[in-house]
């Protein structure tokens, strides 16, 4: 049963698993030991739903963060390019009238 839960945790992003995975397994194992045999199945099914949902949320949040970070870096590059272009055009000698 713990092996199934460990396998479920693979759905989480790697960084999340590294930080919280072992603690989550310890808590699940403790709850499984305290549960009656029939309650263990309910515990595992609940964990399946919880892990799948939370993993989806974390992956979606990571995707939004990456897109936002990419948009910000793209904006910064454009801003530098525009600033450099304006600096070059303002320092160019003007044509006599």
Characteristic terms for this protein:
mainly alpha, 97 residues
Please provide a written account of the structure.
There is one protein chain. The longest helix has 55 residues, at 37-91. The chain is built from three helices and no strands. The protein has helices at residues 2-9, 14-34, 37-91. It is mainly alpha-helical and 97 residues long. The chain is 87% helix and 0% strand.
Instruction: Summarize model confidence as the mean pLDDT.
Output: 81
As residue ranges, the low-confidence spans are none
Largest sheet: none
Strand content: under 5%
Tally of DSSP helical segments: 3
Distance between the termini: 86 Å
List the helices and strands and how they pair.
Elements lengths: L1 H8 L4 H21 L2 H55 L6
Helix pairs in contact: 1-2, 1-3
Concise synopsis of the structure shown:
With 97 residues, the chain is mainly alpha-helical. It has helices spanning 2-9, 14-34, 37-91. The longest helix is centred in the middle third of the chain and has 55 residues, at 37-91.
């Amino acid at each position: 049963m713990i092996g199934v839960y460990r396998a479920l945790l693979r759905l989480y992003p790697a960084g999340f698993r590294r930080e919280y995975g072992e603690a989550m397994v310890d808590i699940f194992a403790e709850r499984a030991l305290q549960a009656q045999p029939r309650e263990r199945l309910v515990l595992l099914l609940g964990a399946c739903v919880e892990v799948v949902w939370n993993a989806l949320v974390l992956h979606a949040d990571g995707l939004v963060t990456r897109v936002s970070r990419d948009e910000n870096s793209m904006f910064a590059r454009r801003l530098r390019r525009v600033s450099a272009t304006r600096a070059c055009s303002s320092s160019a000698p003007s044509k006599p009238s």
